[in-house]
Amino acid sequence: xxxxxxxxxxxxxxxxxxxxxxxxxxxxxxxxxxxxxxxxxxxxxxxxxxxxxxxxxxxxxxxxxxxxxxxxxxxxxxxxxxxxxxxxxxxxxxxxxxxxxxxxxxxxxxxxxxxxxxxxxxxxxxxxxxxxxxxxxxxxxxxxxxxxxxxxxxxxxxxxxxxxxxxxxxxxxxxxxxxxxxxxxxxxxxxxxxxxxxxxxx
Length: 202
What we know:
Alpha-Beta Plaits; 5 helices; four-stranded antiparallel sheet; Ribosomal Protein S5, domain 2; 11 strands; about 200 residues; alpha+beta; five-stranded antiparallel sheet
C-alpha cells in the first residue's frame, strides 16, 4: 500500500445557482469523524435558515471510510453527487458540505443531482490539491546516556521531532516518520540498549 495520498491544503468555497435556488459549497481537509461531526454541527447552527445542508466525506488512505448524506433531499440526489466529485479527484481526508437555499421552483431529480455535483465541483476546483505522506509517531523513552545515539539517527534520517523532554534520569522524544521508514527505524532504535519504543499510527 502506498504511503502517499491526495487531499486539499485548506478550506475552499464554491457556489452554484439554479432557478432561484442557491447552493453554497465548502470543502475542508479533515482527519477524523469527530472533526467532521463538529464542522457539520457548526454549519447547522450557522445556516439554520437553509433548506438543506448536505455533505459527503472520505477518510483513510484506502478510502474505505466514507459517507454521503442527502439531509432531506430525495435519496441519491445530494450526498452521492458530492461524493462522486471527491472520488473523481482521487481525494481522501476531505469533507464537502453544500448548503441549499430553496428558490421556490422544484428542480427535479436530475436538476438536484446536477446542482449538488456542480456546487461540489466548484468548491474543489478552488481547492489546492496536495500530496501528503502517511505518518506514524514513534515515542522513545531512554536514559540520558543514550541521548547522543538517538539524536545521531534523528539527524542522519532528517526525522521531524514532534516533542522532546530531557533530564538527567529519563529522556523522551516523539518523532513523526513515514510508514515506509518505520520498520528500519524501529530496529535501529531497538538496538540502542534501554530504549522503550511506542508506535502511534495517525
